Every structure is written in structure tokens, then in C-alpha cells.
Amino acid sequence: MTTADLSTTSNPSAANAAMASSGVRNTAAWKHCAVIALLGVVAWFVFPNQLSLLARIAIMAILVISLDLVVGYAGLATLGHAALYGVGAYAAGIVATRLTGDPFVGLAVGALAGAITAGISGLLLLRYEGFTFLMLTVAVAQIIQNLASKFSDLTGGSDGLSGFSIKPLLGFSFDMQGRTGYVYAVTLLIVCYYAAKRVTDSPFGLSVQGIHQSRPRMRALGANINAQLWKLYTFAGLLAGIAGALSAQTNAIVGLDSLSFEISAEILVMLILGGAGRLYGALLGTVIFMLLHHTAATINPYHWLFVIGGMLMLVVLVPREKLIGWMLPKAWRNKMRRA
């Protein structure tokens, strides 16, 4: 039991305050999910011909949320997060190819594969900090990508996995218009966001944020630093595995690019655009990046990165409060601060 637990147990007023605070955080999580659901319904009717793109945005949003847990909340800089995503994608693809095309089975296996990969690699990675941790995450991702290439009988090698079919989801087939895939992806985005929000607002999540702010202080309070970070890293791997499985099932193809450094770098840019340490920032950054990518690549497929680079420089150099002031009305800014 930590010092905070002892003080709360011995002080009834502190316990009541903690319960009230927990209720407020739970309400905030539901409100955020309701907003996501509402925006998802609006997008369905406003962009009926772009549902495949919107499903892709929802999938990447889940992946960026998992990255935010690692980078924004735990303070662990990583450039190998695509490994967890790719493992989930390959696991779901292999299950669909060799065992069953049931989407729920594939999703569960993908999530489990991501969590196991994060748990095993985390035992090594979390022994280190800073630049060493960063480079080791890149090394782990490269090793997994190389293994996927070598075991071509199982993974398809450089050709990837394709030709597998996913069974109907609760009676609805995965269609070319992406309607079923969109509903599937948005529903899981809401579930994953709620789970991540509850974790970050829980005493466990607050202790991880304390570790991010000051490891020596949390160690002095009796926190098991490595154990706490390992739990969060494993949970982040589970969410990344869900995103990978979703990608495999909605696209019916898995390639080595799902394990690439490019994906790790892109989702980090998405997180920076939206703001690390705020789950809604992960959503905002993903939407901005994906829409800019789609629009700029349509206009000029060779130089779209100039637009993304300019946006990234703007976010890094201009204070966040000023950017929010430019984009949102004052009433919305106040609501975001309270959230």
C-alpha cells in the first residue's frame, strides 16, 4: 500500500473526495465517447463515399491512442510502436488464412499478440531510459520485421498475406463501400478510447503520470517503477494489436509495411500534431494528419510531405494555447481546458 492509499484510508473526507473525483472522471470519459459517436454518425451521412478512408482514420486513431499512453503519459520515447501494430495485423491475418475468418476471433488473437509482444519486449526495454530505450524500440521493430520476412511460409514474406476472407460481422458482410468496416472501426475506437481514458484517470494511471514527472519522487513513495510502466506498456500493446487486427480485417491484406519504421514515425507526428498527454489530442492529430495526407497526396503525390512538415513546424514552434485560440471559439477552448 502506498502513502497515498494510507492517507486516503485514514481520512474519510479524503476518501469521499477521491470517490467524487472518480465519478467526475467517469462522466468525462462517457462524454468524450458520446462526442466520438456523434461525430461518427455525422461523418456517415456527410461523407458516404469516403467511409473506407474514415475507417482507416479510426483505426489509426486507436494506434495513436496506444502510442499516447506510452509517450504522453509514461514519458517513454519510442520509434518502434509499429511492431505492436504489425504483429496484431499478422496474427489476425494468419488466423483468417489458416483457422477461421470470424472477426471476433481474429480481433482477440490480434489484441493478445500485441499485448504479448509488448509484455515480452517490455521486460528488456523498460530496463533502460531515454535515447537507449528509443534505439532499442527501433531495434525490436526491425527484428520483428525481419522475422516476418524470413518466415514466408507463414507470413507470405515480401508478398504479404492476402486472399483471405472475413466472415460477416453480426450478419453484415464487409462490403466494398466500407460501411461495415467503418461501423466496426468506430465502435472499437469508442471502446478503446473509453478503456484508455479510464486507465489514465485511475490511481494506476495517475501513478504512471507521476513516474513521468519524477521517478525519484515516486520511487521514494514506494512505487514499483518498472512494474507500473510494464503494465501500461502491455496495455498499450493490446490496443495497438487491436488496431492492427482491424486493419487486416477491413483491408483483407497484411504486408511488411505494417511493421515499418515509416508507420512508427507517422503516428508520432500525428501525436505531436494533436498534443501528447491528452487522449483527445491523439484523435485530433490523427484526423488532421490523415485528411492532410489524403488531400495533399491527391493534389500532388510527390510533395505532400511539405505540407505535413510545415504543419509539424507550426505545432512545435507556436505555443499550443495560441494555436487553439486561432482555431476554436472561446467557449470551446474553456470546455477543453476543463476536460
Counted by DSSP, the helix tally is 16
- What does the average pLDDT come to? 84
Q: Which strands sit side by side, in order, in the main sheet? A: 1-2
Shape: globular
User: What's the helix-strand series?
Assistant: HHHHHHHEHHHHEHHHHH
Q: How many strand units?
A: 2
Strand content: under 5%
Structural class: mainly alpha
The profile of the biggest β sheet is:
2 strands, antiparallel
CA(first)-CA(last) distance:
29 Å
Share of helical residues: over 70%
Number of domains: 1
Our Rg estimate from Cα atoms comes to 20 Å
Given as residue ranges, the uncertain stretches (5+ residues, pLDDT < 50) are: 1-20
What can you see in these coordinates?
- The protein is mainly α.
- It has one domain (3-260).
- It is 78% helix and 1% strand.
- It is built from 16 helices and two strands.
- It has a two-stranded antiparallel ribbon with strand order 1-2.
- Helix 5 (103-125) packs antiparallel against helix 11 (225-251) and helix 8 (179-201) packs antiparallel against helix 11 (225-251).
- The radius of gyration is 20 Å and the shape is globular.
- The two termini are 29 Å apart.
- The relative contact order is 0.17.
Q: Quick recap of the structure?
A:
Helices cover 78% and strands 1% of the residues. With 339 residues, it is mainly α.
Secondary-structure map:
Elements (H helix, E strand, L loop, with lengths): L2 H8 L1 H35 L4 H23 L8 H17 L4 H23 L4 H21 L1 H4 L5 E2 L16 H23 L1 H11 L1 H6 L4 H27 L1 E2 L6 H14 L4 H21 L4 H14 L2 H8 L2 H9 L1
Antiparallel strand pairs: 1-2
